[in-house]
Amino acid sequence: MDIFSGSDVFAETRTLPSFDKLGYAHNRLDRDTEHRDENSLGTMVQQTQARYYLLHDDNVLLRIKDGQQTALFCLERAQKLGADMDRVILLGTDPEEDNAPRLAVPLTDQAIEALATNEEYVVEGIRAVGLKDLLPPDQLGAIAQARSLLTWHVNHQFCSKCGASTVVALAGARRDCPSCSAVHFPRTDPVVIMLAIHRDESGVERCLLGHHARFDTPMYSTLAGFMEHGETLEAAVRREILEESCIKIGAVRYLTSQPWPFPSSLMLGCFAEALSSNIQIDETELTEARWFTRQEVREMMARPAGDELPHIPGRFSIAAWLIRFWVDAG
Ligand SMILES: [Zn+2]
């Protein structure tokens, strides 16, 4: 299969799946950062249709009403529940909700304590919200943005150039240093996550999956690792696979990406052509890695998350999409 078929360089991209269940990847908010100024936050907060996501570390507040969960609250309710309004930030406006502002604000520790006894509300982990499919995909994407951005603000209260206190700018899209005039933008940490594929002399393909030391079930997944400075995407894929399994890689092909807000990564999903097949694992990362045929992977795909028998991650993770894409291609 050629990446560029004929004159249409996007031909293959047009046939890609919608990645509908891929977690955190469907944020529709219009951030409009370039048009924000010092008045944007105040203007947005005052709009009657403004709604707030209330977060506390890796958790988000949900209200259970008529069996439905909602994560968006009006200003009055946010304040009543104990939102720390001094730390509010603008995420963007929702083009499908009449451009209503969407903001994020942390809950105080005291608010979390008080909510523990309130049956109307649940403080739910952001991972669990996605895995349990509790909210629409676009809201999950906005919550991921909120989680990364709120954490960045907490960790960048002081200027990394001169040490003075920084202040929020552009409604939360930047922090400025009044002392030395440095401007600080939120960072995203790229992570490569890749499915290595080996084709043997008889043309049979197998993919490389590993069991990570941190998995508490017999789940097998793709390899992954942080990109380093001055490294191309392709070089990072080759280096990570070599480090973790001693497999040499030739061609690398990008599929899709997934924001991963713990705290601020972007997973770059790729396929990698294995040029060797003799696996030697890095035992600090993996307990096992081996080659799987499509049939073996199909059997694992049929089992649910947490199964006692070998299985793969669910569609919430980009690993699942890489694995399923390869299985479906054969
Ligand atoms: Zn400074």
TrEMBL record:
Gene Ontology biological process terms in this record: NAD+ catabolic process; NADP+ catabolic process
EC number: 3.6.1.22
Top-level taxon in the UniProt lineage: Bacteria
One Pfam family in the UniProt entry: Zn_ribbon_NUD
Gene3D superfamilies attached to this UniProt entry: 3.90.79.20, Nucleoside Triphosphate Pyrophosphohydrolase (3.90.79.10)
Keywords for the protein's UniProt record, in alphabetical order: Hydrolase, Magnesium, Metal-binding, NAD
Cofactor: Mg(2+); Zn(2+)
First-tier enzyme category under EC: hydrolase
Enzymatic reactions: a 5'-end NAD(+)-phospho-ribonucleoside in mRNA + H2O = a 5'-end phospho-adenosine-phospho-ribonucleoside in mRNA + beta-nicotinamide D-ribonucleotide + 2 H(+)
InterPro entries: NAD-cap_RNA_hydrolase_NudC (IPR050241), NADH_PPase-like_N (IPR015375), NudC-like_C (IPR049734), NUDIX_hydrolase-like_dom_sf (IPR015797), NUDIX_hydrolase_dom (IPR000086), Znr_NADH_PPase (IPR015376)
GO molecular function: metal ion binding; NADH pyrophosphatase activity
Domain Nudix hydrolase span(s) in chain numbering: 186-316
Family according to the record: Belongs to the Nudix hydrolase family. NudC subfamily.
Record NCBIfam families: PRK00241.1
UniProt-listed PANTHER family: NAD-CAPPED RNA HYDROLASE NUDT12 (PTHR42904:SF6), NUDIX HYDROLASE, NUDC SUBFAMILY (PTHR42904)
Name this polypeptide is given: NAD(+) diphosphatase
Organism of provenance: Cohaesibacter celericrescens
